[in-house]
Amino acid sequence: MRTVRVLLTGLLAVAAIALPAGCDRTANSATGDHSRRPSRPATSPATHSPTPSPSPSPSPVSYPLRGTGSYAIAPGHSATLGRSGTLLRFQVAVEHGIDHLSVSGFADQVVDILGDPQGWTAGGDWRLRRVGPGQPHDFVIYLATPATRDVLCGAVNDRYTSCRNGDAVVINVSRWLHGVPYYHDLTAYRDYALSHEVGHRLGHGHELCPGKGKPAPTMEQQTLGLHGCTPNPWPYPHGHRYAGPAGEYPLIVPTDPTTWYRPS
C-alpha cells in the first residue's frame, strides 16, 4: 500500500530564484535522546497531574490570486523511481506566496505519486528521479497560483486547470487544494492531476472516455468532467496499462471565480 500523503504545514527556509529555488523538512523530538526520558511513576494522584497544553491547530494553506513569480525548489533528491526505461530527472518548485505549505512535503507527495506501482514507471518505459537546485534536469513540476498558472501555461488562460507547457508541468494550487466536485477523494484527484500532466511530458495526448460507466483514462481531461466514465487516476491500474481512444473535450471551465480562487 502506498503511504497516505498529507500536506505538511509551515513554510521552511527556501532558496529563492527568479523562475524556478528550496527548503527542507526537519524532524524534532523533545530531547533528541528518548533513552533519557524520566520514567513515569507507577501511580500519580490525579490532582497533581498537569493538564497538557492543547497543540496549536496548523494554519491552513493560503495563496493569493497571483504569487510572486519566483519559486522555491525542493532540496535533496529522491531514489530512482522505476526499474527500467529512459531516466528523466525533475525538480519540484513551489511559488512564493503560497503560505503554510512545506516545499519538501509537497515534493514528497510528488515522488509518492510518481513512484506508485500504478503510475507511469510501472510499464518499464520510464524511470524518474527528483533532483535539487542547480542539478541537471529534464523538466520541472511547479505548484503555482491561478494567475501564474496562466503565465506558465502560455496559450490558454483559464486560472482553473493545470497544464504542461514544454518542460514545465504546472499544477494549479487551487485544484491541488480543492479538487473538483465530482472527485470525492482529494487524494485520488491529486494522483490524477499529477499523473495526467506528467503523462503529457512523457508524450501522451488526450484521450476520451471509452464508454459509460467505465474508468476514465488518466489522459482524459477529468478536471473538465468525467463524460460518463468513473474517476481513475492511474495509467496502470492494478499494474496493467489502461487507455482510451485519442481525442479531447472542449475547454469549458467554471465561470464562478471562487472555483479558482478562494481567499483566506
TrEMBL record:
The alphabetical list of record keywords is: Signal
- The protein, known as: DUF3152 domain-containing protein
Q: Which ranges are annotated Low complexity under compositional bias? A: 40-50
Region Disordered: list its residue ranges: 28-67
Name the residue ranges with Pro residues bias.
51-61
Q: Which InterPro entries match?
A: DUF3152
**Phylogenetic classification of the source organism:** Bacteria, Bacillati, Actinomycetota, Actinomycetes, Micromonosporales
- Which residues belong to the signal peptide in this entry? 1-23
Q: Domain named DUF3152: which ranges?
A: 61-226
Signal as a keyword of this entry, yes or no, is yes
